[in-house]
Amino acid sequence: MVIFFTATLAISVVGLLALISLKRFEMNTGRVVLGRARPMVGEFMHRLVFFVERVLPALIVRLLLRAAAALRRGVHAAVAWGIIVLERLLESTLRGIRRTTSMPEGKRAVRSDFLREVAEHKKKLQELGDRAIYEE
Prior knowledge:
- The protein is mostly helical.
- The chain folds into two domains: 1-33; 39-102.
- It has helices spanning 2-29, 37-101, 113-128.
- It is rod-shaped, with a radius of gyration of 45 Å.
């Protein structure tokens, strides 16, 4: 890395010395070196600077906005997919709970003696008809 920076410094120093020498030559002799090419070079440099200062930042902003929109769409799709997966998981859990808590088909549940007595008592009360039975 040190070699790179040293070489860059040396090239910069040589370039500046060449520009100073060229300007001194022009001032002493009164001749303009590459006079016809200077307007074209100036126009090229103007366009290059305009591109770097104005166009390139606008392109970067547009690219970042598009990337942000794509990221939002991706997050939206991922959240929707997660909700669907969660819904399926909850539905399968609910089916499992129903399966484990429901009575098997074709089999009658064995009643306890207490429940049998309560059912008989309820029938007797309904047959009498004079007492109210409230079911909730």
